[in-house]
Structures are given as C-alpha cells and as structure tokens.
Design brief:
By secondary structure, this protein is mostly helical. Helix content is about 70%, strand content about 0%.
C-alpha cells in the first residue's frame, strides 16, 4: 500500500498488540460473557490503527493522535459540522453507522441465524440498499489512481 514509515508503524502496532494478546490469553481465560467487550476492543484498536495507515508522515500521525487523545475541551471539537450546508449526508452517515452497528451485533451474536425471516428477507434487502446507496452517493471519477505513489 505504500513505502512510507507509517505502514511500518501500522504493522508494528498490530504485531505488538498480537503479542500482548497471546501473553494475556496464556495467563487469563476470559468467560464468554466478555465476548462483546472483545468485539468492541478489536473495532476500536483497528480503527485507531488505521490512522497510521492513512497518514502521510510520522509528524502527521503524532498530530492526529495528539488531537484524539488530548481530551481538552477548550474548543468546540465538532465545529466543522456547523459549516455544513446540507445535513442530509451527515444524517445518512449517522443512520448508516447505526444500521451497520446493529447489523454487526445481530450477526456476531447469532440473532440473524435464529430467524428465518431475517435470513431470507432482511439481510438481502439491507445489502441491496447499501449497494444502491454506494452507487447513488459514491464518487467514481477519482482524479488520481490510489496506487500512483507506490
């Protein structure tokens, strides 16, 4: 995906966390009731590690992580959202996040597989709606090929 040092940082983060997980698993046996917490942990770690994957330099990475983890409330953190002229994309994004979260929970904890109706109707309709939304709101005329700098 690239030849920058940030990709090495991204890989090192994953390697470090994997080694820590293996060491902890040898010492502690987690009951199944903690499955949800493990799922949240994986999603949060992976999401935060993708920042290293997408930044252009280590200095950019430091700035982004510093802003995320500074926990200072001296300025309005979502101030950019007030300049949006149309709230439809924001509302659509929020709705999609909620729907994807619910879908993931249903699939992760087996709710969908227990319901014939959900398996036959809800899942295909959901995927069809997402597929259509991608084509309606997607940007397909990119000016630059994603691997140009590789």
């Amino acid at each position: 995906h690239g030849a920058a040092i940030t990709f090495i940082v991204w890989g090192a983060l994953h390697g470090l966390v994997y080694v820590i997980e293996m060491m902890v698993k040898k010492k502690i046996k987690f009951p199944n009731k903690f499955t949800f917490l493990g799922w949240v942990y994986v999603i949060l770690f992976h999401t935060l590690s993708l920042i290293a994957f997408r930044t252009n330099s280590i200095s950019d990475l430091k700035i982004v992580y510093k802003k995320i983890f500074s926990f200072t409330y001296s300025s309005y953190p979502l101030g950019e959202l007030t300049s949006i002229n149309s709230y439809f994309p924001l509302a659509l994004t929020g709705l999609l996040i909620v729907v994807l979260f619910i879908k993931e929970l249903m699939e992760e904890f087996g709710v969908v597989s227990k319901s014939g109706f959900a398996t036959r109707f809800v899942r295909p309709i959901f995927y069809l709606i997402v597929f259509v939304l991608i084509f309606v709101f997607g940007k397909f005329n990119s000016d630059q090929f994603i691997y140009t700098n590789f």
